[in-house]
Amino acid sequence: MKSFLLLVLSLIAGCEARSAVKGCIEAWTEFTCNISNTTGHCRTIIITSPIGMTVIKNWERNGRINLYHEKKKKNSTLLIKPLKIEDAGKHTCESYNTTIYDAKLESKYEEDVCPKPFNQTAYTTAKTTITCHHNKSRVRFFYKEKGDICEETRSNGRFTLTATNSSFNMSISNVSSEDAGVYWCGLESKDGNQQIALRQIRLEVKKIRNFRRSPMVGETFTYWCDYRSQTAYNYKFICKGEDPSVCERLVSTQHNKMNNGKFSLNDDRQKRNITITVSAVTADDAGTYWCGAKSSDKERSNPFFHRFIMTVGEFDVTGRFEVIITGIVCVAVLLLLLMLVLISILVYKRFSHSKKTRPGATAKDVREGRHQPRVKWKGPSLLGLACAGV
Question: Are 33 and 93 in contact, with CB atoms under 8 Å apart?
């Protein structure tokens, strides 16, 4: 089982003693030795502990322990990553026999100060927020591991850092696979000479199934999501917001929380899916919804199964009226054309009926076409009939 002993370090930079700081076992710590008042720099660090001595030369690495010197800034920085119990002890700068810092091990267990590593899952193109809790009101930071080094994450474009009295949050918008990796959150002294990592966050980025719907205002809309994974969950829930890690819970499978008047859900455990119903849709219901579950593992974020993006359409009275008028005109034109066709048929039949052979016509008359009677149309014209609606 991972140890959560506290490494308490009392730092002396130059000749002035600094306040005590704490480091977490299996995390890392960094101290800067200010040598602006001396004529040189710390060429060698001798780390003395109850179990022996370790010698680190400038710009060298000795496994977990690194020493770097910056001539322009006139300081030397000691980085220990990760911290071990044997790192406790007296640390001196050999060049001037000046104590850089003393350390002693405190065997007090404080999980709230040195929490276990946290596994967080983010989803592509969405937003995610990493939260680091602490009860100390100091400057806070986030670092991301890149090989053997850690790169500080600052607010810019997609990354936003915010601090409160008890926590420090880093939000990442439009998450991509490149954001996956190991992050550290921790404390920094006001003068920037001490940095103590507190918690490791392992960020995993996954794809998620997306779907969109556009119900109309006033409709009752139903959709569903499945949770076919065999993982055990405390309960399932629906939440709203662009960021699933901090989204607003609406309804869940917990007792008496499956219906809030607007949203309701039904959990079919045999089919392993949830049906969600939205009653009397309004324009305010538009947004992004997540179907997820409460994780049973405290060191792991909640899993999510579906992302649903809902846009709400409004009833267009003017548009509907125009469609109705157009339909009426089209029907009237078709009826008029049908009437004209019927009238033409009636006229043709009447005209044909009047073409009969005259009584007493001879064979010669038939040959010469004189047997046809001459009919003079005395009725109204075709156009008159059409106008009269016959």
Answer: yes
CA-to-CA distance for 352 and 372, rounded, in angstroms? 11
CB 50 within 8 A of CB 40: no
Burial of 21 (0-12, 13-18, 19+ CB in 10 A): buried
Question: Which amino acid type is present at position 52?
Answer: G
* Amino acid at residue number 28: W
The pTM score is 0.70
Nearest CA to 236 among 332, 144, 303, 320?
A: 303
> In angstroms, rounded to a whole number, what is the distance separating the alpha carbons of residues 390 and 346?
10
Q: How is residue 337 written in tokens? A: 């054309």
Q: For residue 22, what are the contacts with CB-CB under 8 A and spacing of at least 6?
A: 6, 7, 8, 9, 113, 196
When comparing pLDDT for 78 and 276, which is higher?
Answer: 276
| DSSP code string of 276-330 | EEE-S--GGG-EEEEEEEEES-TTBPPPEEEEEEE--B---HHHHHHHHHHHHHH
Element (H, E) at 325: helix 317-353
Query: What are the backbone dihedrals phi and psi of residue 107, each rounded to the nearest 5 degrees, phi first?
Result: -90, 35
Question: Cα–chain-centroid distance for residue 229?
Answer: 21
Q: Which residues contact 174 (CB under 8 A, 6 or more apart)?
A: 125, 126, 127, 158
pLDDT per residue as tens digits for the range 73-126 = 667 777 788 887 777 666 655 555 555 544 544 444 455 567 789 999 999 999
- The mean per-residue pLDDT over the stretch 369-381 comes to 49
Name every residue whose Cβ is closer than 8 Å to that of residue 128 and which is 6 or more positions away in sequence. 120, 122, 171, 172, 175, 203, 243, 244, 245
Backbone CA torsion sign across 318, 320, 326, 329: negative
Are the beta carbons of 133 and 216 closer than 8 angstroms? Answer: no
Indicate the SS3 state at residue 283: helix
What is the DSSP code string of 195-238?
A: EEEEEEEEEEEE--EEEEE-PBTT--EEEEEE------EEEEEE
